[in-house]
Amino acid sequence: MHTKLNRRSLLASSAALGAAAMLPGRTLAADNLTVGFIYVGPKDDFGYNQAHAEGAAAVKAMAGVTVIEEENVPETVDVQSTMESMIQFDGASLLFPTSFGYFDPHILEVAPKYPDVRFQHAAGLWSADKHPMTVGSYFGYIGMGQFLNGITAGHATKTKKIGFVAAKPIPQVLLNINSFLLGARQVDPEITCQVIFTGEWSLAVKEAEATNALADQGCDVITCHVDGPKVVMETAAARGSYVCGYHANQSPLAPEMYLTGAEWNWADVYTGMVKTVMEGGTIDNFVRGGIADGFVKMSPLGPAVSDAARAQFEATKAEIMKGGYSVIKGPLKDNSGNVIAAEGQAFAEDDIALESMDYLVEGVIGSTS
Amino acid sequence: MTEDLGIWAVPVAMLGGAIRVSTPFLFVSLGECLTERSGRINLGLEGTLVFGAMAGYAIAFESGSAWIGVVAAALAGAVFGLFHGWLCRFKGVNDIAMGIALMLLGLGLAFFFGKPYIQPVAPDLPAISFGWWSEIPQIRAALEVNALFIVGILLAFAMAWMFRNAALGLRIRVVGDSADAARAIGLSPNRVRLWSTAAGGAFAGVAGAYLSLYYPGSWNEGLSSGQGLMAVALVIFARWNPVMCLFAALLFGAAGALGPALQTVGFTSGYYLFFAAPYVLTLVLLIFTSSPGKAMEGAPGELSITK
């Protein structure tokens, strides 16, 4: 590994020299922690980034914490310079690079250079034997939320076809698609789910085209996994399809057509982690949680949700709240006929095998490549 | 109930896509066509488009009327065009470099002023239904046509007519083909170019308003996926002919709908490849329509790329 001498690091080190001369022991002051949040898109996108930014806002309200944020940081070498500048310029010692693609190689490249800085990555697969101990990964079992979405969808659909606009076929997205369909199949095992991949996290026109294509196919409940679900929600509602939200509460966008939504609840998670660091503790390298742990919450049910749907939704949610619920359980095949789970076999929500999912279950129309 | 169209879903989706997606390409390419016919290049239309999208959305939200938003977007675009046209009259100012600078400026300003407007929901432009004759909901949906699309088609033919028959069009062409000849007949090339660039900017602003106010119909920072840049390329592809710009824009819109539509009828693998369809199509057409002898046929003589 080599250290690049760029303008940033030169400026930073001369600034650090000056600061060190004036303020000895500044970094030792435990009551002033600088926390950096990095987002891949705008932090008010009605979606993924907004959910994280709401968590950051809760951290900002804590005493003795300075929060710095940067949005629209691409998953390229750009995020490395953002991280380095947060560390060198702003003195950040806890970073939350929140996008999936920031992990490998970017965090893995930067982390060894700054052994005193803690890197908390959302969604990454940290493993003790491969990755530095100063890096941690955290995520929530939001697939459970999509499963509950699917239950409301299963009650609302008349065509027995539901639709999913997905960005990329990565494990978290595949789990969401599978959970959405399996939720709907709790209501009626005849239901199928058409998935369309757009190939990118944020492509407004393509997301609108994908939503229209789903509506053309007769999908009358549509959800998505893209960074900003605003376009999908508005387009689907305009075509007369019901929508299930994702990432954040999108009900203001389509109040009549919104059934429910799977939302992140990062505020508690982030304030908890920051508190641990301020009290001198260490955050676990591998943090996961579901609806029961307060990582994920559901939007209030919309006016189109029937009483029968509401009852099944609440009953299932109560089961999930007990912890260890399994969405993926046998007998189950993928959509090319391979057995995923035999009779009696079940993958609980915290099963690590689910985080390397590479299949779409039977009933999902689409392909992972 | 929707009907299952089977494989026919693909052409229907492409028709719908051509109508929905092509309008921004059409307006930007018509604007660039006008500007380039006067002998100047404006590569900054991507920035103008994004700023127009933001301005249109913001004004529509504040005023409650989508059409006022469109007018505001056109005005904002015209201001960008005037600025470009004014700067480029100075000796030694390179219009290509200036255009790129203005593109970045437009994007930056749009993101800066657009922050408070990502969350609010502005009124949408209304659509006109041309699908009343059909019982099939997919066809009805595909034939929901926005008034701006019709305006764009009329504009393409009006511009073609203007360049051929009207005094104004001939003036623009003279200035674009030979500044010396224009001066000899008493025209001021700078003034003609200034207003052509302003009008081109206004068209790009309207294209942006279409994106934010109709399809997809909301403002956010990732709204444009390079429509402004592709449209500049379309002008060259269309050989500076407004009617050809229309066909090029339709082709692009239709090809863009191919990817999602094919996934719904079962072509599930290799969708990245189908998403590249518009670009592949452009390349193929360029290769087949090109010939070494006529590479610059139709190009205005005063363009800095042909000089």
What does this structure look like?
Chain B: Its main location: membrane. Chain B: GO terms for molecular function: transmembrane transporter activity. Chain B: Pfam families: BPD_transp_2. The complex is a heterodimer of chains A (369) and B (307). Chain A has 369 residues and is α/β, with parallel strands linked by helices. Chain A has two domains: 31-140, Rossmann fold (3-Layer(aba) Sandwich); 143-263 and 297-365, Response regulator (Rossmann fold). Chain A has ten helices and 17 strands. Chain A has helices at 7-22, 48-60, 77-88, 103-110, 143-156, 171-187, 204-216, 230-238, 266-278, 307-321; strands at residues 33-38, 65-70, 94-97, 118-122, 135-140, 161-166, 192-197, 221-225, 242-247, 258-264, 286-289, 296-298, 326-329, 332-333, 339-341, 346-348, 364-365. Chain A has a seven-stranded mixed β-sheet with strand order 12-10-9-8-6-7-17, with helices on both faces. A six-stranded parallel β-sheet of chain A has the order 2-1-3-4-5-11, sandwiched between helices. A two-stranded antiparallel ribbon of chain A has the order 13-16. The radius of gyration of chain A is 22 Å and the shape is globular. In chain B, helix 1 (9-37) crosses helix 10 and helix 1 runs antiparallel to helix 11 (242-264). The longest helix of chain B is centred in the N-terminal third of the chain and has 29 residues, at 9-37. Chain B has one domain (6-294): ABC transporter involved in vitamin B12 uptake, BtuC (Orthogonal Bundle), CATH 1.10.3470. Chain B has helices at residues 9-37, 45-63, 66-88, 95-114, 137-142, 147-165, 167-177, 179-184, 189-213, 227-237, 242-264, 271-275, 277-289; strands at 127-129, 144-146. Chain B is built from 13 helices and two strands; from the N terminus they run H-H-H-H-E-H-E-H-H-H-H-H-H-H-H. By secondary structure, chain B is mainly α. Chain B is 68% helix and 2% strand. The mean pLDDT of chain B is 88. The interface between A and B is large, with 43 and 46 residues.
